[in-house]
Every structure is written in C-alpha cells, then in structure tokens.
Amino acid sequence: MREQLFNSPTNSLLTVLSVWLLLMAIPALFDWAFMQAKFSAQSGQECRQVEGACWAFIGEKHRLILFGTYPYAEQWRPLLAVVALVALLLLSTWRKLWNIWLLLVWVVGMTIVGVLMWGGVLGLTYVENSLWGGLPVTLILATFGIALAFPFGVVLALGRRSNMPAIKTLCVTYIELIRGVPLISLLFMSSVMLPLFLPEGMTIDKLLRALIAIVMFAAAYVAETVRGGLQAIPKGQYEGADSLGLTYWQQMRLIILPQALKIVIPPLVSIFIAMFKDTSLVVIIGIFDLTLAAKAALTDPAWQGFGVEVYIFISAIYFVFCYSMSKYSQALERRLSTGHER
Amino acid sequence: MPRKPGSSRKIWNDPKFRSVIYQILAILFVAGGIWYLVSNTLHNLSARNIATGFDFLTREAGFAIGEGIIDYTPADTYSTALTVGLLNTLRAAVIGIFLATILGTIIGIARLSSNWLISKLASVYVEVMRNIPLLLQLFFWYAIISESFPGPRQAYNPIPGVFLSNRGLKMPTLEGAGVTWILGGLFLAIVLTLVLANWARRRQERTGEIFPVLKPALVLFIACPLVAWFISGADLALNVPELKGFNFRGGMTITPEFAALLLGLVIYTAAFIAEVVRSGIQSVGKGQWEASSALGLKRGLILRLVVLPQALRVIIPPMTSQYLNLTKNSSLAVAIGYPDIVSVVNTTLNQTGQAIEGIMIIMAAYLTVSLSISVFMNWYNKRIALVER
Q1: At B252, is the secondary structure helix, strand, or coil?
Q2: B163-165 and B168-171 as β-strands: parallel, antiparallel, unpaired?
C-alpha cells in the first residue's frame, strides 16, 4: 500500500488528488444512474420530474434500438440471427476448430442467418432488407465486411510485393489512395456515385453499397498488415520454396502465407475491432444500424431529450463486443508468441 | 515445375514472357473497368441532365455556414464556401492533434506510473475510450452539451465573463490595435527562445556547461508582449459577452458542435496515443532506467533526458498514423452538424447534383492534408534518427 501509493511526495499528492476526484465523481454518477433514476415510466413527462437517468426510455424503446424497423411480430428472427452470428464468432475463437470445417460451419451459419433475416422460405414471411435494422445490421456489415475484405486484402498485399512493376503500381496506388481518405468519403461515393457508375436501369441495394465501401476500405488496411507479415518471412523461406521447384501460387499457399498470416493475427483482430466500430458510420448515408436506430428512438416526441441514456446503452453494447475481441487478441498474442521463442 | 532436359522451350513457359502477359492483362482489365464505369457515368449524367466540370465553383452558393474563420455570406461563391469548410476541418485537426498529443502523453506515462491507482485509472480510460465508436462519443458529447446544459439565461458562470450554456462556451476576447502587437511580441518571444535553446544546446555539446533556458524564456514570454503593448499605446479593451434578450452578445464563442467534435476527437485519439507512448517508453531497456538512477538522476529527469529521446524513435511512426487518423476522423463532424469540408461538400452536392466533382474535392483535400502530415512527420523522424546515432 505504502509502496504503491505513497512512495514519494509527488505520488502521495497524485493519489490524494485522484481519490478526491473519484470521491466526487463516483457517488454522483451512482446517484444519477441508480438512486435518482427512473426505471419504469409511462412517458417521458414522468422522467423529467426526476434528476437521475431515465432507464424507462431504454425499456420502452429497446426493441426499436436493437432491431430497427423489422416487423414487430417477427423480431424473434433477428434475435435468433444475432445469437447465431455471435455463436459463429465464438466458435471461431476456438483454435482447435481452425481448419477447413470451420469454413463449412460459416457457410451453413450464414445461410441460417440469411434465411432468418429474409425469410420467404419454410413458412417465414419475406422481409426485404430495407426494413432490417439495429444490431443484426451492425453485425452483418462487420462480419461480411471483414470476411470479404480479407481475401481481397491478401491479394493486394501479394500484388504490392510482386516484382511485376505494373501490378505493383496498381496495388500501391489503390492502397495509398484508400488509406489517405476518410471512410465517410467512400460511403458517400457508394451512396451517390455508384448509381451513376452502373448501366441505366441497374441498381444495387443500399445495404450492399455500404458493404462495398466498407470492404474497399478495410481491404487496404488488411493489405498493409499482411504485407508486414510477408516482410517478416526470411528470404531463405522463399529460396527454399524456389529450390523445391514450387510455382508462385504453391509457394504462397503452402509456405509463405500460413507463416505470414500467423504472425499478423493480432493486428488483424485489431482491424476487425476498428471495422466493427466503423460500421457505425453508415448512419451518415442513412442505413439503419444500431446507432441510427438509437437516433430514431430519440425522435419520438413523447420521449425527447434522453440522448445521454440511449448513447450509454449503445456504447455498452459496442464496448462488450470490442473489449472481448481485444482481450481475445491479447490472449492470442501471448499464446502465439511462445512458438517463436528460442 | 522443374524442366526435363531436352524438353522444348515453349515461349509461354518462360517466366519473363508470362510476367509481361500477366501485367498486360491486369492493365487491360483495370483500364477496361475504368472505361466501362466512365462510359456508364457519362451516359447517366447526360440522361439526367447533370452538368459536369468545376464551373459551379464560381457560382453563388446561397447557403449559410454556421461558423468559420474567414468571412462568408450566402452570397459568396461555392469556392469560398469550400474554403470555409476546409479551414474548419484544419482548425479541428490542428487543435485536436495538439491537445490529443498532450493528453495522450500524460495518460501513457500515467499507465506506467508506479502509483497503482493512477496506472489503473489510466488503463480504464484507455480501454473504455478505445472500445466505443468515435461517432457514438461525438453524439454523446453533443447530447450532453445540448440537453444537459442550461439555456443562455441560466448559463453556468464559473469565472466572470465566461458562460457555459447549450449555445456553447462564451469567452471574453481582447480587442483593439494592441492585439496584433501583442501577438507579434509573443511570436518574437517564441523565435528568441528557439534561438536561445539552440545556442544553449550547442554550447553544452561544445563545453559541457548547462545553460538554464527556462528562466530567460519566461522573462522573454512576459517582456516581449508587455513591451509590444506599451508600443501600441496600451490600446487594449476586453470584449466581455453579455446576455441580451435570448442570447449572448460580444465575446468569443466555441459552438456546441465544435466543442463536441474537439472533445470526442481528443478523448478518443488520446487513448490510442497513450498506447503508442507507453509502448515507446517500454521499448527502452530497463537497464537504462537503472543506470540513470544509479547516476543519481530523478525519475522526471530520467524520462526527459534518457528515455524519451530514445523512445521517440519508436513513437514517431505510429504517432504519425494516429495524427492521420485524427485528421480523417474529423470528417465525422458532418454527423453533428459542424460545417467541415465534408458537410459543405454534402450541401453543395445536394444543391448542384455534381456528385463526382464533390467527392473528388473531399478526397483531394484529405489526400493533400494526409500527405503533408506524413511528409512533415517523416522529416521529423529522420531528424530524430540523425540525432540518435
């Protein structure tokens, strides 16, 4: 205690100062969040009487926030889809399962998610994806985004390391261009420019357009990370593969990529976390993800003025996902690094 | 495949030939794709009667912009409006980078503190801020300012002349001819301090004697503006904001939008910068700490003289990408209504329909800013590395 908190005058001062700050902040926060808070109310009017938080608002609107405008009676379907997606993600964290079967599990899982969300088969009513919203949209954008961006990014990274000047230039231009601009500009591009790019009469769904922008953006970042992994592979490995007479693609598939990807798993998880957070930007082009659903809940005239509560609720959801991912990546890093110690 | 002796050397088995073919195919593929998109676009544009080109820049914009550094009215041209937007972006980015660096460095060092409480608080800060999307944080701060702060009539008044309300932060400003003189004096003080520091460093390298720079610098920073103030004839007045009717008059305003954007950007980026600083400091071997404390240096001096100069080499490259991220993230301003370049272009685009030109302007603006930051940081990185070895 003395060693850790009061080992020098400066440290004692800092300790006292931060304890004082905590004593000021925590009881006040506790008061606001629990003691003075209203957990059930008929309307926002009742909530305005009290000083504390209005959690009744979350209770009233949680289905709108979590599932957006999905038909009310059918909301068990997006709920199941979210459970399925989370189960898939959890399953993928289990290293024993990292083989070709996992791919199959994903294909099956995504089919189930698709059937649940769209319906139209097995007696489920059809729900078009402009009605989707909330947490499932956030999860779908993030998982599909990374799943599609990953192979694209690997190809870009290989292209950047290629010794064919034309291909190298194309990849470098793409990567640097995309990494130099904000994601918002790509989202704007997908929402206002993509329709101009396509032949007359052909349209792409809004959700898919946003997904294209996210994939294009994430691929550039994946590419740079994978390039780092490729650079870490000693030259002898390439030469060994060459002397075995393997072709370029055999060399990459059997020798280089498995090692390079293993090295960059932790930074790849970080990119996944960043992407998960970045999906919230689709608000700006009007896609009904978790954040926009929260904003929509705020527009109800009977319940206006509880923005802080709703943003804390959404933040908690994002935090649970991102924090567990980052803890997982740290654990993975520790476990993988043992293989490299000599 | 290893070639069997005697097998005929077909030209398509020659790696050089094949690489040329691949490259030609790749270029044809990309060029074909671009040509396809361009031809579709041209067709669509003419079908929808949308003009092309940058002629719209000289036309009257006709929309108001909430705040800006230069004067602007709706009667001005689109190019002026875009300049206002770009300057607003730069203002948020520059102030944001400055504040985030300071806060991030403090938190990064706090995480390594021997004080258990301080290091725990710092790591809670980092984990919470890193794992919540920036956009949500912006909405959160904006909601706090616009919902929880009182209206102008009941504004908080922590210091006389400073008002905190849901219209933003009102502060007194200095007015009169003296302002320019005092700014000039401050600038002179900065230049003189830099010259002095450089001279002191060289003298120390030559003779080993340490010249205390801090005291003369303090004197300079007080004396130069003061002398400038006298030269100007002491022409200086305080413009204090006053409540008139339903809003404040006079003084300087920090709008809720700008405040929310800055709070969000600084608090979010500081968490990442803290991690960069921490890993940089940790990269300096423990033996260095032990050796310096064996020489009798205090902890603060060890950090400043021994550890930080070496850590900077590790810190600068990831710091550069954090600066770039902050600049790019300032584009989220559009979501809370701060008139940055994206927001202005978005309005322009809705009025003129010229989407392609608009997006090109946004991308060009950010590419230019990003490139300038990287060039500057790479130059600094090289300088650090040279001092190092």
Answers
A1: strand
A2: antiparallel
β-bridge mates for residue B164, sequence order: B156, B169
A109 SS3 class: helix
Transcribe B85-132 into DSSP letters: HHHHHHHHHHHHHHHHHHHHHHHHHHHT-S-HHHHHHHHHHHHHHHTS
* Dist. CA B389–CA B380, nearest whole Å: 15
Looking at residue A218, its pLDDT comes to 93
- Please report, for chain B, the start and end positions of each structural domain, with discontinuous segments joined by +: 78-130+256-384
**Pair B136, B329: CB distance under 8 Å:** no
Contacts of A4 in chain B (CB under 8 A): 114-116
Angle between helices A307-337 and A265-278 (to 10 degrees): 170
- Beta carbons of B108 and B101 less than 8 angstroms apart: no
* Category of A40 on φ-ψ map: left (φ > 0), alpha (ψ -120 to 50) or beta: beta
Chain A residues within an 8 Å CB radius of B375: none
Q: Give yes or no for residue B389 having a pLDDT over 50.
A: no
Select the more confidently predicted residue: B13 or B105. Answer: B105
By the CB < 8 Å criterion, does A164 face chain B? yes
How far from each other are the two terminal CA atoms of chain A, in whole angstroms?
38
Each residue's pLDDT tens digit in chain A (342 positions)? 666 667 777 778 888 888 888 888 888 888 887 777 777 777 777 777 777 777 877 877 888 888 888 888 888 888 888 888 888 888 887 777 777 788 888 888 888 888 888 877 777 788 887 788 888 889 989 988 888 999 999 999 999 888 888 889 999 899 988 988 899 999 988 888 888 888 877 778 888 889 999 999 999 999 988 988 888 888 888 888 889 888 888 888 888 888 888 888 888 888 889 999 999 998 888 888 888 888 888 888 777 778 888 889 999 999 999 999 888 888 887 777 655 444
List all residues of chain A from 240 to 299 with a beta carbon under 8 Å from chain B.
Answer: 245, 247, 273, 277-278, 280-281, 283-284, 291, 295
Residue B5 has pLDDT above 70, yes or no: no
> Which among B125, B136, B164, B147 has a CA at the least distance from the CA of B264?
B136
* Listed residue (A161, A275, A182, A167) closest to A222, CA to CA: A275
CA B280 to CA B293: how far, in whole Å?
Answer: 19
Could you give the CA distance from residue A316 to residue A66 in angstroms, rounded to a whole number?
13
Q: Is B118 an interface residue toward A (CB < 8 Å)?
A: yes
**Which tens digit of pLDDT belongs to each residue from B129-144?**
999 999 999 999 998 8
List, as ranges, residues 5-44 from A with C-beta within 8 Å of B: 5, 7, 11, 14-15, 18-19
CATH of B78-130+256-384, one of 1.10.3080.10, 3.20.20.300, 3.90.550.10, 1.10.3720.10: 1.10.3720.10
Give the residue from B40, B328, B334 showing the smallest Cα distance to A193.
B40
* In contact, B100 and B265? CB cutoff 8 Å: yes
Distances (CA, A) of B318 to A103, A275, B278, B346, B388: 34, 19, 12, 31, 18
Question: Which residue blocks in B283-340 are alpha helix, DSSP H?
Answer: 286-294, 299-301, 308-329, 333-336
Other beta carbons within 10 angstroms of residue A138's beta carbon come to 28
- For every residue of B185-245, DSSP letters joined together read HHHHHHHHHHHHHHHHHHHHHHH-PPP--HHHHHHHHHHHHHHHHHHTTS--EEE--EEET
- 3-class state of residue B23 by DSSP: helix
Asked if A292 and A140 touch (Cβ cutoff 8 Å), the reply is: no
**Cα B318 from Cα B320, distance rounded (Å):** 5
Torsion angle of the four alpha carbons A108, A112, A115, A117, in this order, in degrees rounded to the nearest 10:
-130
B354 touches chain A (CB under 8 A): no
- Please state the ipTM of this predicted complex: 0.87
